[in-house]
Structure to design on (260 residues):
């Protein structure tokens, strides 16, 4: 009888542990709600007594994407090393999709949109922010990824403050927008290929040109297929990229309205 009671205690104890792990899992698997970049940027500018210059919406949106990535339910999970979050992979892949778009836009902002020409001096705060966003996404400590991204966010907010005060530049030229969209096109093309490969496909090998002495059938046709264990990873990375990109495109539509 005593052994039976002990068995019940162990069984119900295991159930309780599973429930304790399940509850935070449901909370941490939530992603931030979408927001209106233009409306929020205007409200933020009024609150901080900033001028609503061109580029303000895009910069504010980039800062908000970073802030919401770090402060969403459960915080930033990609670098966690302890259970139960170490067993998750959907949300970390979503985070990487968002982070990729943040990195691309921060690079475009530093190299193109804030500079009048290729040989002009780069903005000091953007020069500090962009490398921080490129830090290893899986660093747990010394330093942590969150700490580095937070430093990048602080530098980006300094640029936003200077932009709203008229002390920083943002050039809404068509070539600046085109350069960033070219990077977006490549990102989406890669994700599209990986999604399509979930069921396997025969396609022409566009990665390398065939050698002159080989037959076309040996070099041009390849079979690509995403391993079944990675299909959901690609899907959630696409979701993260799309979530971030929707906001950035809406902001760019407002800031670059004169050249669209």
């Amino acid at each position: 009888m005593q052994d039976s009671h002990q068995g019940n205690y162990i069984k119900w104890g295991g159930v309780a542990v599973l429930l304790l792990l399940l509850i935070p899992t449901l909370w941490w698997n939530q992603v931030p709600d979408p927001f209106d970049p233009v409306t929020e940027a205007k409200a933020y500018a009024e609150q901080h007594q900033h001028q609503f210059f061109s580029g303000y919406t895009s910069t504010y949106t980039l800062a908000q994407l970073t802030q919401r990535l770090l402060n969403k339910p459960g915080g930033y999970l990609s670098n966690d090393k302890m259970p139960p979050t170490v067993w998750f992979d959907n949300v970390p892949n979503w985070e990487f999709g968002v982070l990729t778009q943040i990195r691309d836009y921060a690079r475009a902002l530093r190299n193109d949109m804030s500079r009048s020409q290729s040989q002009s001096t780069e903005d000091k705060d953007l020069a500090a922010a962009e490398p921080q966003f490129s830090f290893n996404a899986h660093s747990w400590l010394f330093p942590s990824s969150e700490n580095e991204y937070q430093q990048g966010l602080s530098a980006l907010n300094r640029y936003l403050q200077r932009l709203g005060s008229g002390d920083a530049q943002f050039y809404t030229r068509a070539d600046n927008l085109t350069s960033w969209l070219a990077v977006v096109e490549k990102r989406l093309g890669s994700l599209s290929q990986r999604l399509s490969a979930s069921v396997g496909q025969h396609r022409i090998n566009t990665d390398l040109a065939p050698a002159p002495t080989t037959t076309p059938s040996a070099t041009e046709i390849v079979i690509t297929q995403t391993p079944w264990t990675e299909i959901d990873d690609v899907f959630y990375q696409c979701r993260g990229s799309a979530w971030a990109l929707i906001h950035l495109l809406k902001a760019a539509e407002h800031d670059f309205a004169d050249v669209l």
Observations:
- The two ends are 79 Å apart (CA to CA).
